[in-house]
């Protein structure tokens, strides 16, 4: 079972986007470590009494992002009547871009928490969630072949 040349290009483009999103996470790690190194001890730029509330809110948003990924994926994977494989491949590319963009959100929220309050443990926890989501939803040939040929 192989992909059509057009779908193959779409898969490669989606993979490049996936690598780019993952590289963005690496840039966040490097930036966080440089800030911690240069501004030791880094306690954040803001010291507000509601930091715990903000922290919980950011973790809740990260959880909602995971739910959004699952809902969007289920909705956009439904094949439409009369849809050709290449059209489904184009929709699959859009879906991949949306999911990978959403997968980066927890890491970005963790970085904001780090900048606000200096919580590097929160940053790494949310970064791990982002990395896991990117790994889970990274565009793979076997998955695309299965989705295109069996849907």
Summarize the helices and strands and which ones pair or pack.
Layout: H1 5-38, H2 51-76, H3 85-103, H4 105-117, H5 120-137, H6 141-150
Helix pairs in contact: 1-3, 1-5, 2-3, 2-4, 3-5, 4-5
Walk me through the structure.
With 151 residues, the protein is mainly alpha-helical. The protein is 79% helix and 0% strand. It is built from six helices and no strands. The protein is elongated and about 60 Å long. It starts with a helix and ends with a helix. The mean pLDDT is 89.
- Tally the helices: what do you get? 6
> How would you characterize the largest beta sheet?
none
Please provide the ordered H/E string of secondary-structure elements. Answer: HHHHHH
Count of folded domains: 1
SS elements, strand count:
0
The level of helicity is over 70%
End-to-end distance? 14 Å
Secondary-structure-based class equals mainly alpha
Shape call = elongated
- Rounded mean pLDDT is 89
Cα-based radius of gyration, to the nearest Å: 19 Å
Share of β-strand residues: under 5%
Poorly predicted ranges:
none
Describe, in short, the structure shown.
The protein is mostly helical. The chain has helices spanning 5-38, 51-76, 85-103, 105-117, 120-137, 141-150. Helix content is 79%, strand content 0%.
């Amino acid at each position: 079972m192989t992909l059509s040349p057009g779908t193959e290009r779409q898969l490669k483009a989606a993979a490049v986007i996936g690598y780019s999103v993952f590289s963005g996470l690496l840039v966040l790690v490097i930036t966080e470590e440089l800030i911690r190194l240069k501004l030791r001890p880094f306690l954040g730029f803001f010291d507000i009494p509601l930091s715990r509330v903000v922290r919980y809110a950011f973790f809740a948003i990260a959880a909602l992002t995971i739910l959004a990924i699952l809902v969007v994926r289920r909705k956009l994977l439904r094949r439409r009547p009369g849809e050709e494989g290449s059209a489904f491949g184009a929709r699959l590319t859009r879906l991949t871009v949306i999911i990978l963009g959403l997968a980066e959100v927890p890491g970005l929220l963790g970085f904001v928490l780090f900048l606000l309050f200096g919580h590097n443990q929160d940053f790494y926890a949310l970064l791990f969630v982002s990395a896991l989501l990117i790994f889970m939803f990274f565009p793979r040939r076997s998955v695309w072949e299965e989705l295109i040929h069996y849907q």
